[in-house]
Amino acid sequence: MNEFRITCTSLLQTNGVMCTGKTNNKTKHSPEKSVVKLKSGDELKLTESAFVALFKAFFAEMETKFVAK
């Protein structure tokens, strides 16, 4: 969910440049462990497959955290 939040914030506040610093309250972001592998300073251009992967990962995490079992 952090990667999704960072991506959204970066799109809205830094004109589509991945920003993992002050703009995103220094949320821990590890490009190696992330879904789309973007680093701070990279332009946010998601392919369809990257968008789908991020979407699926976001909702999978939402389900594990907020859906009662």
Characterise the protein shown here.
- The protein has 69 residues and is mainly α.
- It has one domain.
- Helix content is 45%, strand content 0%.
- It contains two helices and no strands.
- It has helices spanning 2-13, 48-66.
- The radius of gyration is 12 Å and the shape is globular.
Keywords:
mainly alpha, about 70 residues, 2 helices
- Shape descriptor reads globular
How much β-strand is present in the residues? under 5%
Count up the helices: 2
Integer count of domains: 1
* Uncertain residue ranges: none
Structural class by SSE content: mainly alpha
Largest sheet entry: none
Q: What sequence of helices (H) and strands (E) makes up the elements?
A: HH
Topology diagram in text:
Elements: H1 2-13, H2 48-66
Quick rundown:
This protein is mainly α. The protein has helices spanning 2-13, 48-66.
